[in-house]
Amino acid sequence: MAYDQSAMNELHWLIDMVQTIEVGLVVLDKNFDIQLWNGFMENHSGVSPNSIKGSNLFEQFDYLPADWLKKKMESVFLLKNRAFISWEQRPYVFKFKNYRPITGRADFMYQNVTLLPLSSLTGQITHISMIVYDVTDVAIHKLQLKAVNERLEHLSQTDGLTQLHNRRYWQICMQKEFDRHARYGDKTSLVMFDIDHFKKVNDTYGHMAGDKVIQHISHLLKQSLRETDCAGRYGGEEFAVVLAKTSAKDALNFAERLRHKIATTELIYEGEPIKVTVSIGISDLQEQIGNSGQWLSFADQALYQAKKAGRNNCVIYKPKT
Ligand SMILES: Nc1nc2c(ncn2[C@@H]2O[C@H](COP(=O)(O)OP(=O)(O)OP(=O)(O)O)[C@@H](O)[C@H]2O)c(=O)[nH]1
User: Domain GGDEF, which positions (predicted)?
Assistant: First the structure.
């Protein structure tokens, strides 16, 4: 008798805990009809256990990904194993509003869900339980951290004035293209250019105007790029672009178009028109180029030739014979 009483107490407490625990508990039969719906599920869905018991989960909540979820549940019945659904895989299973003040930025509750096989007294798996954990706090913090890291990564790779790649990151991209060429032999060209007589721009219009000119040229450069091109601000008024899958001839066409666009587009700074030109050096990846430093140096030598030849022009590097 005492034993019965203690067992009854235990059962009563357990039921109480199931009802009040801050975790969602649902029991489903093989037809996905709801057999148990605890207080957490009631509080967040607004549907009481009495009104939902016996009804089909997928008819009650028609937004649920039925095919996907049924497949997961059927495998729990069949294999008698647990299955997990993480918020990173699917932010939520049940569309519950998020009321937590700390994580007010989430509109919905992020959830981890465990599907658990439940055996009957005869040892058969006739039901499964869904255990729904509210992981909104963890998810929001993780997402915020990810966003901050992405932002930091972007900042560490980007030139502040032009939003082009900075020199360090551009060199990494250039090295990658060099390695790709060594592996696959694709035609690849490097274009370096420098604003002509830029010191005069600074001296005439001031440093702020000089900065605007650098931004203006970057803008024209960005307009000329393809998705696969890698462009960076190499130095103060010097820019570098790796053109993937591009021969020297095609790189020259690109460079000529850019040079012409820059030479014919004026920037208005405080009512004053400013016009600049650029000199451009090109080096396509040839077999005799042993490393990326040499490739860069050849483009730089071609740029020097372009300056020497009178500026506002493009020169392709020719290996000395
Ligand atoms: N406004 C501004 N000026 C810069 C920046 N970086 C470098 N410069 C200036 O760019 C000028 C480069 O001058 P030089 O290297 O003598 O070359 P240049 O006057 O362009 O002449 P050439 O290259 O020979 O045609 C210097 O006056 C630098 O101060 C920058 O970020 N902003």
Answer: 186-319
> Is pTM, for the whole model, over 0.80?
no
Domains, the chain, with CATH or none = 2-143 (3.30.450.20), 158-316 (3.30.70.270)
Q: Tell me if residue 33 falls in helix, strand or coil.
A: strand
Name the residue with the closest Cα to ligand 1, atom 7. Answer: 236
101, 150, 283 from 297: Cα distances, Å: 58, 33, 9
How far apart are the CA of 121 and the centre of ligand 1, in A?
A: 84
Write the pLDDT tens digit of every residue in 286-304. Answer: 878 889 999 999 999 999 9
The sign one gets for the Cα dihedral 135, 141, 143, 149 is negative
pLDDT tens readout for residues 115-161: 999 998 888 899 999 999 999 999 999 999 999 999 999 999 999 99
Q: Which atom of ligand 1 is nearest to the CA of 279?
A: 25
243 Cβ partners below 8 Å, 6+ apart? 188, 189, 190, 191, 226, 229, 250, 251, 254
Any idea what the Cα angle at residue 127 is, between residues 126 and 131, rounded to 5°? 160
Q: Are 244 and 190 in contact (CB under 8 A)?
A: no
Asked whether 284 and 189 are in contact (CB, 8 A), the reply is yes
